[in-house]
Amino acid sequence: MISQALACGTSGNDSGNDSGNDCGNYPGNGPGGCGSIARKAELVALMVELLRAEPPEAPRTRLREHALSACAHLVALEPPLSDGERSELLPAALASVLALPEPPAQDLLGDALGALSELLRGLLRRRLSPGGLQEIFAHLGPWIRSPRPPERLRALAVSKALLGTFLRHLRVT
Q1: d(CA 96, CA 90)
Q2: Which of 60, 29, 64, 67 is nearest to 46 (CA)?
Q3: Deepest of 28, 30, 53, 59, by most Cβ within 10 A of its Cβ?
Q4: CB proximity list for 1: less than 8 A, separation 6 or greater
Q5: What distance in Å separates the CA atoms of residue 129 and residue 127, rounded to the nearest whole number?
Q6: pLDDT confidence of residue 154
Q7: Which pLDDT value is given to residue 105?
């Protein structure tokens, strides 16, 4: 799904770029650039690719946090992500933060963890049902059962935030 969205965003849209420069597929390219991103799914796909490309060592920049925050804002917009897009976003987002080693700069990890929590809460609000909660926990479960204590603690912190959101928005009729 993600690769299809990326392919759609770059197909046949390199008019005006005969210079041979590879300017990439970035939102700021605009008309006549190498590519344009016209749909939400394409933006989310780019953020997923960015999260996957981040090195697995301790964060030195706020790139993860900003990519997760962008996804959190995008999932709130219409139309909702498809099941396939959600199932590609969830593991990439979780792995980008939960698998990080303990960094010397704890604030970068804390901010990335906060952005991850906000993204997961946004995904839950879009599908606020026991099924939506179960979908997220299906991806979160392996992290909760991780043999590495830092991964487990982060996963449990995110789980607590998700359960709190679910409880606050639960409407029993």
Answers
A1: 10
A2: 67
A3: 59
A4: 41, 45, 82, 84, 85, 88
A5: 6
A6: 94
A7: 61
Which of 106, 116, 120, 101 shows the shortest CA–CA distance to 58? Answer: 101
Say how many C-beta atoms besides its own lie within 10 A of residue 57's C-beta: 9
Average pLDDT score, the chain = 80
Distance, in Å, from the CA atom of 63 to the CA atom of 149, rounded to the nearest integer, reads 25
What pTM was computed for the model? 0.75
**Are 87 and 43 contacting, i.e. CB atoms less than 8 angstroms apart?**
no
Torsion angles phi and psi, residue 134, rounded to 5: -65, -40
DSSP 28: G
C-beta separation of 75 from 122 below 8 A: yes
Residues whose CB falls within 8 Å of the CB of residue 99, separated by 6 or more in sequence, listed in order: 56, 151
